[in-house]
Amino acid sequence: MKNIIRPHAEDAYAKELKRLIKSDSKAKPTNWKLSPSAVVTYIMGGQLEDGYTISPKYFGSQRLIEIAVATLATDRALLLMGIPGTAKTWVSEHLAAAISGNSTLLVQGTAGMHEEALRYGWNYARLLAEGPSTAAMVPSPLMTGMEKGMIVRVEELTRIPADVQDSLITILSEKILPVPELNKEVQAIRGFNLIATANDRDKGINELSSALRRRFNTVVLPLPASLEEEVNIVKTRVESIGESLELPADLAPVKEIQRLVTIFRELRSGKTEDGRTKIKSPSSTLSTAEAISVINNGQALAAHFGDGKLNAQDLAASIGGAIVKDPVQDKIVWQEYLETIVREREGWKDLYDACRELL
Description:
The protein is of the alpha/beta class. Helices cover 46% and strands 12% of the residues. It folds into two domains: 9-220, Rossmann fold, CATH 3.40.50; 227-357. It contains 16 helices and eleven strands. The chain has a five-stranded parallel sheet. Strands 1-2 form a two-stranded antiparallel ribbon. The protein has a two-stranded antiparallel ribbon with strand order 5-6. Helix 11 packs across helix 12, helix 13 runs antiparallel to helix 14 and helix 14 packs across helix 16 (349-357).
């Protein structure tokens, strides 16, 4: 466990889940490990009656999480929408961990994905030797979830080709998976449901058909509403990731996180935080997840090649690469922002000089 870079949610937060299960006296849907209200407590954080503190996994609207959990308690599937970096995958993993105690039933959507990844495949050696049989079948995570009554996750649904997407329609509407080769079907048992994630910002996406979209209840996860909220998210996740990377917990000062988040929010919105100055926005999404990556990279530079404390030079080394995706247009936007905003901002001269050196 100690040597695993990124343990599954049910392993990383096993103590919290165990305490919640022990203290949860409310009614649970069939095959759920926790009641819906306890699932929300696990996601949003809180204090149990015995004084034990549950850490927050998501910083945002509790109502959105309540809607998501309530959806999964019905027979409708859940679709988490939002631009990259709004914690869709993070939330889906923790929902599955809290509800089923297992977040590993995962289908990763890709542009070249085949229908077998959603339905089932075959062990071709056994298929040739024995013919079609249950023993020769290789169940997909979706089939396993249906048979065991567990939550299944489908990541990047809109990256999956449209004809493969539509193979979900029968599963979600009838709760059955036909297996014509064996003249049988797999029927879902209670507890089964599906959480899909999708965004409409990236290139190369496939629109969902209206028939498939109707099978989902859609919850849109927004970007953090305030600077303070986003700084808190970045700080919390950086500390968590830093532990697995064996980086000191106090390596990233809040001051540097605040400066980075301010830059990302201003470039994202096209105006300064005080609303007085309009600025151009780059083509990159500049999500909270990217801010976390920039800080983590700066931490590594500070720990291994610096004085042990993340400073403007360490921050500048990663920030440019996060903003400049288009080497022509984005570079112009970044240069203009540095000259008109960063250069004039009090107390930011060290960051301006460090960024200018790298242009």
